[in-house]
Amino acid sequence: MRKFSDIIGQKAIIEHLYNALRTGSISHAYILSGDAGSGRKTIASIFAAALQCEDLQEEETEEPDQPASRMRKRKLLEPCGRCLSCIQSESGNQPDIITISHEKPNSIGVGEIRRMRADLQIKPYSNARKVYIIPDAEKLTIPAQNALLKTLEEPPEYAVIILIANGLSAFLPTILSRCVVLQTRAVEEAQIASFLQREKELPKEQAAILARFAGGNPGQALLLTDDREFLELRDRTVDFLAHLSRTDAVRISEFSSNIDTGRRDEVLDFVLMWFRDVLLYHSTQKSENLIFQEDIQYIIEAAGMLGFERLGRILDEIDTASRRLRANVAADSVFEIMFLKIRQQYRRRI
Q1: For a disulfide at 78, which of 3, 45, 107, 257, Cβ 3.0-4.6 Å?
Q2: R_g of the chain computed on alpha carbons
Q3: What H or E segment, with its residue span, contains residue 97?
Q4: What is the C-alpha separation between 36 and 38, in angstroms, rounded?
């Protein structure tokens, strides 16, 4: 079963929950806030399982997915995975862990909260606590929040309520004041890349690219691993950039006009990453820290043709293109002009 040591990043949240489990200072209500894919639901399910576990295990573990130079050990209290409660939790059948569902897709109404409150009056079946998990809690209506508030003000001693939300702005101040608020943070690219290499057995280059585009969100990185269009776009863009110095204007125009509307920022990011690799190799003559290591021969070729001054102009052109896209200038024109000016840097004599 999943353990806290499996969570990528979110060290502050895990440390808080470890200390709560170790000391027994469990709050009656938590809000786990952050972007979808940041680990909120996984953390909630592990914490719920740990609260019900009959044989919590204190384990010493290395912090996952950290570079060797920063690796250190820490202690975590983990669900044992063997007791009846853990087996039930893993299968979704633990009677004292209840997930609140809602009929309307865009709101959680007062009816759902009243039903939860009625169930709360029934003592736990087999454990000391009864845990309620409310996904999409930002969808709680104001009447629903007021109904929940009555429980938060006078909760049964065995109740633990975990709200999972995309943000905090939808909550009443009175709700926030009665909950422990734990917010997920962006995860470092190196951690996500290492996670993808281990979990998905991806090559280093592919993992690094997906981590760069994940925006600090491990769940988003996992989604990208199955995004065929994204992977095809990467290959097509890298092949185009590898041969840009020898590409004619017609091919540049065709490539620019065929960039999908929803993928423009991704293409621009690929271009920026490519020329940063060229600059890094030009500066160090080393390949181990490059993102596009599988295309090292083209990186070396470009680095030999482009000095620091020319690379500086190219990075300026990419920045100009980014600003023009944000200003809603015609995208095909923006990319065509950018690529033509980049190609010119290969051919100009300084």
Answers
A1: 3
A2: 26
A3: strand 97-99
A4: 6
Could you tell me the residue ranges of all domains in the chain? 4-183, 227-347
Beta strand pairing call for 73-78 and 97-99? unpaired
In the structure encoding, which two tokens stand for residue 260, read together?
């999908």
CA-wise closest residue to 217 among 64, 34, 50: 34
Q: What is the pLDDT of residues 29-75, one digit of tens each?
A: 999 998 888 888 999 999 999 999 988 787 766 655 454 445 556 66
Instruction: Indicate the DSSP class of residue 163.
Output: E
Residue type, position 94, single letter? Q
Neighbours of 310 (CB within 10 A): 19
Burial class (CB in 10 A: 0-12, 13-18, 19+), 134: buried
Low-confidence residues of the chain: pLDDT under 70? 60-75, 347-350
Chain position carrying tokens 């007791």: 83
Residue 9 neighbours by CB distance under 10 Å: 24
Between CA 242 and CA 102 the distance in angstroms is 51
Token duo for residue 79:
């669900």
Angle at 212 between CA 65 and CA 41, to 5 degrees: 60
Fold of 4-183: Rossmann fold (3.40.50)
Which residue, 217, 232, 324, is CA-closest to 270? 232
- Burial label for 235, CB within 10 Å (0-12, 13-18, 19+), is exposed
The pLDDT of residue 163 is: 95
Find the angle CA(244)-CA(248)-CA(251) to the nearest 5 degrees.
Answer: 85
DSSP code at position 289: T
**HSE (CB half, 13 Å, CA atoms) of 339?**
30
Distance in angstroms (rounded) separating the CA atoms of residues 179 and 32:
10
